[in-house]
Design a protein that fits this description.
mainly alpha; two-stranded antiparallel sheet
């Protein structure tokens, strides 16, 4: 399925030049936030329906911007957390955190901030420890490239990734068992009647068209730069894990990898970057904006090597969006759901 055609969308020049080099262009790919799949379904150069879907996505992105602006005016999208009952903004920035201080007897926010950041580093460090342990114990045949697991069959890659996630989750369990007050700081609480899942899906429904449009723009920029400088054209599959899935048969290990990408990756990454790191920076600085910006930038930076450079702005946008959702609700399940929906959408594009 290719929703972007090569009709009157202002991409004829790039398409013709790239066709000579036998590569994909923005008119031949659909990047949902920079993570794309090549067009293998049709070679007819585009169809009116694909152009319609392209402009429909552009309209959806503009509509999302308008909705977000309206929500911002009504303080639904802001840095002010909801109170514990979810009844609305809690009197100002840090209102929910102040309540946690009262409930947990926290008297040293700076010390708590340092503890949260140290916890984030420990959980993050446990991933390579777990992955290397799986590598050694199971005799896996994998090699690393920029932090990504590549160079072997999907079975070995899946087992090594699972080892990393098990290591991270075990270290988090030990951390929360030793310092119970960090559970609340990390947002390990649930909303009523599945509210977090609903909020996460709604948040990604607003974010996805904007991320998609940014991905289209960035892969277009990357293509033009490569054409002008004579370099390698951008890879339309912008993440190493998606590339492995695209090139592998859909056996049991393919589905294990998909489950890891859709469930475990969002849970571990959001725990590290939002639950622990962002919360720690907010405690340390007293500024929700500082926490969101720093955690968002680090979220983007750790994907260097695993993701193509033209996908990094979209990852930055997603990091900010996940951070805002967490800061607004105080519940980690919301950004985890958003992250899971985004990853699931990317995997779904590989299957059509």
């Amino acid at each position: 399925m290719n929703p972007i055609g090569s009709g009157d969308t202002g991409q004829e020049f790039a398409a013709e030049a790239a066709a000579e080099a036998d590569v994909a262009t923005p008119a031949q790919t659909m990047p949902p936030g920079g993570l794309t799949k090549p067009d293998r379904a049709r070679g007819d150069g585009g169809a009116p329906g694909s152009d319609l879907l392209f402009w429909g996505m552009v309209a959806a992105a503009l509509g999302s911007g308008v909705v977000i602006a309206r929500l911002r005016l009504h303080h639904v999208v802001s840095f002010r957390r909801s109170n514990g009952a979810g009844a609305g903004p809690a009197g100002g920035a840090g209102g929910a955190r102040a309540a946690w201080e009262t409930d947990g007897g926290v008297s040293d926010p700076v010390g708590l901030g340092v503890l949260l950041i140290v916890g984030a580093v420990l959980v993050w460090s446990a991933q390579p420890v777990g992955a290397n342990s799986a590598h050694a114990l199971l005799g896996l045949n994998v090699s690393g490239r920029g932090g990504a697991v590549v160079g072997a069959g999907l079975r070995d890659q899946a087992l090594m990734q699972l080892g990393g996630y098990v290591g991270a989750l075990l270290s988090a369990a030990v951390l929360f068992a030793c310092v119970p007050m960090l559970r609340g700081e990390a947002g390990l609480r649930l909303g009523k009647r599945g509210a977090d899942i609903v909020l996460g899906i709604a948040g990604m429904a607003l974010t996805f068209p904007i991320a998609w449009l940014l991905g289209v723009v960035m892969i277009g920029v990357a293509t033009l730069i490569s054409m002008r400088l004579g370099g390698t054209m951008p890879d339309p599959v912008s993440h190493s894990t998606l590339e492995e899935l695209l090139q592998s048969p859909r056996d049991a290990w393919w589905w294990v990898t998909v489950g890891s990408v859709v469930v475990l990756t969002p849970a571990v990454e959001e725990l590290i970057y939002r639950g622990l790191l962002q919360s720690g920076i907010v405690r340390l600085t007293g500024s929700p904006k500082a926490g969101l910006l720093i955690a968002g930038f680090l979220f983007m930076l750790v994907h260097i090597g695993a993701a193509e450079w033209h996908a990094l702005p979209t990852l930055l946008l997603l990091g900010f969006t996940f951070g805002l959702a967490f800061e607004r609700t105080g519940r980690l399940a919301v950004p985890i759901t958003m992250h899971a929906v985004f990853n699931a959408a990317n995997v779904a594009l590989l299957m059509v």
